[in-house]
Amino acid sequence: MARTTTAVISLLLHLACNSEAAPIDYQAIDAILDAPVHDPAPVYSEPLAPATTMSLTIDEFVELSIRQGLRSQMTRLEYENAGYAKNIIFRQTIGPTLSANMAGNLTQTRTNGPLTKVEDAQSDLTLTQPLPTGTVLSLAGKYTTTLTRSPSLSQHDVLRPGWNASLTQPVFLFVKNPVLRSRRRGRLNYESADDAYRSGILSIKAQARSLYYDVLLKKESLVVEQRKLQASRTLLGITKDLVQAGKLAPVETTRSLVRLERDRRQVQSAAAGREKAKEAANNFAGLPLNLRMEYRSVLKYEPFTLPLDRLRDYALANRPDLRRLQRNRDLAKLDLDESREPLRPSVNLVANYSSNETDTMLSGIDSKSLSREWKAGANLTWRLFDSFVNRDQVRQTRNAAALADLAYEEALRNTALEVENAYRDVKTAEAQFLNFSSTRDSAKENVEILRIQFMNGRGKIIDVFDAENEARSVELEYLNLLTNYYTTQDKLAQLLGTGLGDL
Fewer Cβ in 10 A, N or C end of the chain? Predict the structure, then answer.
């Protein structure tokens, strides 16, 4: 600050007296223009933050967002539910079920005076085994006991553990196997959920990177506005001294004050924007909103070299939305086949075998009986007329299948167009970024030219400060173009359904 004051005093003496005894300290003036910037405490107060600080690169922030972000957690739960739904369908078609049942009753009956009591109990165990062929095998075991008491009769019947086996086999002459159709439908739905999960993860990665870019931009924007504010303060001090020396009109002081207040408001807005960007990033990653974060990644330009034809071919073969629409076509065909079957004959082959042994105790006399039964046959069910309900259902599902085909064809055309447009956006952003280098160089040259003119007494110091501010704004625009370049690549990756690095 001492060098700054000395430079201003020597400048005023030179302008006022034009004396060689007080030469201009050009190095000190450069120190004014290049002085380091610190956060102005009176302008903006930082919110209270925890004592700990987390430092993350952009890749670490993306991984953290996927691991503990709320959106990623919901995406994982939806994917898990799809897996459970598929498992339920598959287990229902091949998994056995075992069920048990127990019942007991007490019945009292009075007919013309005598009272009859009947106590009965029954328990059974049933095992059912379905098969992908549509076959259903059932095996049941049963135990029953009945005790009847009256003044003139005492009888105890016991059905010792007997068992029954049955087999039902549909004959697919007129209809298709509904079990295989159900399994295929479950598999297709799960594959669509898998693609949706991968698309969701890609979307989360893209949004996380976008939030990280936004924090970097807001941080750099605050630095630029702070430098402008510091320059305005320095300019105001110099202007006041020049006005007091009679070298400038008093109105210049007012202009400098207006400039200072404008820059102060800009710093306040930029500081608030930076904090909002940080809180948005913390919220997306599932972190406390007031956690102090350090975003240490530095963006570097890497050329985009993937050819358009390769990207288009990959998207047409692997884009998740296209694969989902293709599965929707398959599901629509399954629905169409199923809708045609209600008015077709249904034939089943049935076989049954049972074995039961009964032990009866009647008035002290014990008797036993054993029965075995074989049964085999077939049944046919045919709905002959349903008031044309099935006809309309078939037409409805046929239209749904046609709509699925059209949606797929439309998506194919749109995918090719969207990939071309996204590729064009990437190359345009890359060209804008590369061409902007000349603008950066011009802004730096302009600052140096105005400095030299001012040092030679042919320019105004306010012009130097304006050029410095413009150069800082150009640097911010340079970073903005770089982030836009990578954002367009993220959008292209979402269209392809995979990261560009995987290609």
Answer: N
